[in-house]
Amino acid sequence: MSFDSGLFDLPLKGEGLRIGIVAAAYNRDRVDTLTRLVVSSLEEMGVLETDIRFERVPGSMEIPYAASQLAKNTDCHAVIGLGIVIAGDTSHHDVIGYSTAISLQNIATSTGIPIVNGILVVNTEQQADDRIGGKVDRGAEFARAAVALANLKI
């Protein structure tokens, strides 16, 4: 048995899926760009614009709460949390990165609804830009992960 780990090679079906997106307002311009990349990729896979539920929260730290509410109280097949945390003079970015990652994983396992961690924790603004339309398209990756995981439930 051979194993090809390329997520981009999987045939993904977005038709009929309802996807929730929770996006942080902090670093809004970059998060909005990331959100557009996610939505575009979802639509390319067949997810209808009317089947994408969008919620805005103040910052990345608030994403797990909103993701939890979408997972528990809506008919979303998957939820994507989007934020960008750029390192500053303290280790606050590490706290946000670790705590939100653990929270999102706990929500996914406790609700049975896939939660994609689309919170980018980077050291510089350039690293953020490289991941949202520069060298790497994390938006497409997050969208494909959500659809792949939602397909597991169907």
The shape, in one word, is globular
Q: Tally the beta strands.
A: 4
Q: Helical content, roughly?
A: 40-55%
Domain count: 1
Quick structural summary:
The protein has 154 residues and is α/β, with parallel strands linked by helices.
Structure notes:
With 154 residues, the chain is an alpha/beta fold. The protein has one domain: Lumazine/riboflavin synthase (Rossmann fold, 3-Layer(aba) Sandwich). Helix content is 46%, strand content 19%. The protein contains 5 helices and 4 strands; from the N terminus they run E-H-E-H-E-H-E-H-H. A 4-stranded parallel beta sheet has the order 2-1-3-4, sandwiched between helices. The protein starts with 18 loop residues before the first strand and ends with a helix.
Which short descriptors sum up this protein?
single chain; 154 residues; alpha/beta; Rossmann fold; 4-stranded parallel beta sheet; 19% strand; globular
Helix-strand layout with pairing:
Blueprint: E1 19-24, H1 28-44, E2 52-57, H2 63-73, E3 78-86, H3 92-111, E4 115-122, H4 125-131, H5 138-153
Parallel strand pairs: 1-2, 1-3, 3-4
Helix pairs in contact: 1-5, 2-3
